[in-house]
Amino acid sequence: METQAIKSIAASKLYVVATPAAAGQDVTAVVEKALRGGADVVQLRDKHSSAADILKAAKKLKRICQAHDALFIVNDRVDIALASGADGVHLGQEDLPLDEARKIVERYGRDNSFLIGRSTHSLEQALAAQNEGADYLGCGPVFATPTKPDYLAQGLELVRQYRERIRIPFVAIGGIDDSNISQVAAAGARCVAVVRAVMAHADPEAAARSLRSKIL
After folding, report:
1. Considering its fold, how many domains does the chain have in total?
2. Which of 126, 132, 134, 171 suits a disulfide with 118, CB 3.0-4.6 Å?
């Protein structure tokens, strides 16, 4: 069944990954500006704070995203995503298997309204995640990025492969900024994720607006 959340992720263009390190200040203030600039999705990625602090931040971001009719996603932590009322969780290759994550979501009563995304770095991984029931995929890293230093850049060809073979929504990510986002869109990405290009920008609102305008 295609839920409203799935329809929303399929229609999204700019996916901003909010990290406290990249923001260099109050992450909620930067996210507010990014949303005013047109961000459709915000993911909270915090791998260093305590669970209590991440939950506190997640609840704040959920309220801000809801006010802007944007989706809010939590990275890695299914428990925090559910407790904060997030629209979904984004899981890496080393995180919970998709079927186990889905069981937790079902026990929480959110099975028909909760997105589960999966980071994938090859067409093989993407096809596997699609078959396992992921709602959307991360595709990358397209270009080299300090956010994923252990992964080699996959290039625009990976985006083209996903556009040809993947049936569910996917988000291109990795080293994307104002200088190359048009190339990524031309390769077939309908939604692009950024971290530093917005979170570390001197004017996050203007940065988000410029990036979103370049996505087909």
Report:
1. 1
2. 134
